Amino acid sequence: MANKLILEKKAQVVEEITSKLKNSAGVVFVDYRGLTDEEITALRRSLRENNADVKVYKNTLTKRALDSLNISLDECVEGPSALVYSEDAVAPIKVVTNFAKDHEALSVKGGIVDGKVSSLEELAKLATIPSRDGLLTMLAGGMIGIARDLSIALNLYAEQKEN
Asked: How far apart are CA 134 and CA 43, in angstroms?
């Protein structure tokens, strides 16, 4: 039988995983087999730049945490799995998807977005959404275009009244 101290440590790890799953808006399970140390370091760096992180836990402990949250992702905790999480729902998905384009060894197994299990197709769609800054830039560009068109129309109207 397992030592009481070991059981307490495992319970702490399960609690840590559970809190990360609850507090993260975006969680992605990835298979990292075949990545070199340099590639994993590059992935961690790009995740950190986007306020996301990656951690490898034992699959049995991750499964316990998922079961405690009533989340069924059994296929994601088979084989080597890493947990990529962030407070931003889309950031980890975008980083992992972009990284996987250049590194075929990295593959997405599944994910959770805003507390709901997402299919691989949904994750792929979310990966194509522009960043928040990109969306704000598009919005500003649209608003500037409207103001420009209005000023041109008012200027033409003023010139027409002068004649």
From this structure: 22
Q: Which two tokens stand for residue 79?
A: 């084989």
Q: What is the pLDDT of residues 53-94, one digit of tens each?
A: 899 899 899 899 888 888 888 888 888 888 998 888 888 888
How many Cα neighbours within 13 Å face the side chain of 126? Answer: 24
Question: In whole angstroms, what is the distance from residue 163 CA to residue 161 CA?
Answer: 5
Q: Where are the alpha helices (DSSP H) in the chain?
A: 4-23, 37-49, 59-68, 91-102, 120-127, 132-162
- Domain range spanning residue 160? 130-163
Q: Are 46 and 34 in a shared domain?
A: yes
Q: What token pair was written down for 149?
A: 């068109």
DSSP H or E run through 113: strand 107-113
Asked if pLDDT for residue 109 goes beyond 80, the answer is yes
The position carrying tokens 């889309």 is 90
Rounded Cα gap, residues 17 and 20, in angstroms = 5
CATH code: domain of residue 96: 3.30.70.1730
Q: Does one domain contain both 137 and 93?
A: no
Same domain, 94 and 19: yes
